[in-house]
Amino acid sequence: MRILLDVDTGIDDSLALLYLLAAPEAEIVGIASTAGNVAADRVAANNLAWLDICRAPEIEVALGAAAPLAVPLRTTEDTHGPHGVGYAELPPTTRTLSPRSAAELWVDTVRANPGEITGLCTGPLTNLALALRAEPALPRLLRRLVIMGGAFNHPGNTTPTAEWNIHVDPEAAAEVFDAFSGAPQRPLVCGLDITESIEMLPLHLTRLAERAGSTPVETVGPDDPITFRSATSNPIVRHVTDAVRFYFDFHRSYELGYLAHMHDPFAAAVTLDPALAVTRPATVAVELNGALTRGTTVADWTGMWGREPNADIVVGTDPAEFFIRLIERVGDFAQAVYGEES
Ligand code: BDR
Ligand code: CA
User: Residues 17-48, buried b or exposed e (16+ Cβ, 10 A)?
Assistant: First the structure.
């Protein structure tokens, strides 16, 4: 499967990237760096750094637009840390950015490989919307699109009704859902109602370290001092532990428990294996004007608008199965990359 990844890296975006790098059945053909959790240049730097840590082959990383289509950028360092990767301090990299923009990466890649590219968006939809303006045939040229975004019959995480990725750039999201009306393949949409059931716990990190053969095997907890940094031997496991521990602290500060919602890696897993998700077709539109509801995804499940469905919304999954896959795949990958060195 040839995947174009569009991310706002981001702690959970980082794990989505690792999940795909670890997947023998996936080839990442390019990474679009979208402004969202942190600024676009920081997203791009994080993507390049993760590729280095994973000793990945050359993968094109393109810089996205600095701001959403119609509103100023809002970032969320309180959720993802000062650099977007929690407490992790990713080493400097000598990898460089593509001369192409993220929108150009989308258009050129999909045009050159009609029917072959699966797009996975785990950030705001700014660059995909810009690409659609340049190439309106993109929905027909893509093999499939998977989106982490929206909240369906469920509260938002940014406003009472809106989810972060959609709320950062509602105009872009509206353009994307409109563009996929009548497309041969409906986008698969992973909304908060499902991704908030993907609860990562300290035990999952412990199992990841065990699976990777990383020592010492650590179990992080809410009483760890803020200055604690992982000392486990495998660099992938070490940086993931530092990143995710920040996400645990963030969720705990909102009284959600000492856990972290793994929105984006779940979308990556569904991209590779749609059978992990139960879906239901609906027509999705994005509210752009509501004084209280701007950025809300509205799903018409029963055809009240008289419009064809433009999304397959994920309505069910097996979180335990997801975590088995995450731990096995990323754990084995971490061990394979560093082997005896760690
Ligand atoms: C989404 O918002 C971001 O903060 C996460 O990376 C995820 O993509 C969840 O609402
Ligand atoms: Ca994200």
Answer: bbbbbbbeebebbbbbbbbbbbbbebbbbbbb
How far is Cα 41 from Cα 64, in angstroms, rounded to an integer? 8
Q: Please say if 239 is a catalytic residue.
A: no
The structural domains of the chain, ordered by start, are 2-198+259-326 (3.90.245.10)
Neighbours of 74 (CB within 10 A): 15
pLDDT value of position 251: 98
Q: How far does the centroid of ligand 2 lie from the alpha carbon of residue 305, in Å?
A: 30
pLDDT digits (tens, 9 = 90+) for 99-141: 999 999 999 999 999 999 999 999 999 999 999 999 999 999 9
- Give the nearest ligand 1 atom to 8 CA: 6
Q: Reduced to 3 states, what is the DSSP secondary structure of residue 317?
A: strand
> Is any ligand 1 atom within 6 A of the Cβ of residue 312?
no
Ligand 1 proximity of 175 Cβ (cutoff 6 Å): no
* Cut 0.85: pTM above it: yes
pLDDT digits (tens, 9 = 90+) for 170-212: 999 999 999 999 899 999 999 999 999 999 999 999 999 999 9
Distance 342 CA to ligand 1 centre (A): 31
- C-alpha to C-alpha distance for 221 and 159, rounded to whole angstroms: 29
Minimum CA distance residue for ligand 1 atom 2: 164
Q: Is 87 in the pocket of ligand 1 (CB under 6 A)?
A: no
How far is 178 from 176, CA to CA, in rounded Å?
5
Q: Which atom of ligand 1 is nearest to the CA of 79?
A: 4
Check whether 10 has a pLDDT greater than 80: yes
Per the structure block, which two tokens stand in for 301? 């499940």
Q: Does the C-beta of 164 come closer than 6 Å to ligand 1?
A: yes
DSSP 186: P
Find the distance separating the first CA and the last CA of the chain, reported in whole Å: 30
Q: Is the CB of 261 under 6 A from ligand 1?
A: no
CB-CB contact of 51 with 95 (8 Å):
yes
**Helix residue ranges, H only, 35-163:** 40-53, 77-80, 102-112, 126-134, 138-141
